[in-house]
Amino acid sequence: MTNSNWTAAPIEDLVRQELEAFGSDRFELTGPNRRLQPQQGLSLGMSIHELATNASKYGSLSNPQGHVAVEWDDSDQQLTLTWRETGGPPVKEPKKDGFGLTLIRGEVVSRLGGNVETIFAPEGLQVQISFPLAGS
Q1: How far apart are CA 81 and CA 71, in angstroms?
Q2: How far apart are CA 53 and CA 18, in angstroms?
């Protein structure tokens, strides 16, 4: 967000910047060129950073074969972003949400009026984040 002087920022730029430290060759990014307002970008950036951090500690980025696909769509004035991990250790659903999912839910649900869905599939974590784009 600082690169855009706290104005609307492209989703792809935001996602790429958050994932740089984790090795860009391990990610596949797909989605339309859409700009997010500052609060939307900040909340989404924090969420992506948290997902990548957890993937590097426990998920698909914790081993050399792991990969993450990040896809987004902006139809019907709603952003839907899907995070899919593959190639990591088998996933087990936790008994309760940790700090990361609590933070993501707080940012997306509370700040943006959106929704977060998680699927703890054995082959990899899947997270779908969606929120309205009104005002963007």
Answers
A1: 6
A2: 10
